[in-house]
């Protein structure tokens, strides 16, 4: 797929793409992985997005620190295994707090709307 005149991410690497994105001005055309983009004043440059990449979820981060999950491990299975241990064998309550939050249904859930959706799809 070819892109019209303008910038093109031919290397398809994030570092090259980020360097190009830093230079774009509103109205510039850019082809990113085959998608044509016209840069606008609403687009944020990578340097403006960088601070958002370090914002995390403290509850999850604390649980993951305790669980010490490896890349190839299933995080949910590790969480269940940990909270299934007797409490005296658990070094921290962080995994339990994460599990409790994951299992809690938010108050804004509309069960009638979910039921209507199920009727449409089933």
UniProtKB/TrEMBL annotation:
State the InterPro entries in the record: Lcp-like (IPR037473)
Name the source organism: Lunasporangiospora selenospora
| Stated name of the protein | Uncharacterized protein
The record's PANTHER family line, in alphabetical order, gives:
ER-BOUND OXYGENASE MPAB_MPAB'_RUBBER OXYGENASE CATALYTIC DOMAIN-CONTAINING PROTEIN, SECRETED PROTEIN-RELATED
> Per its UniProt entry, which superkingdom is the organism in?
Eukaryota
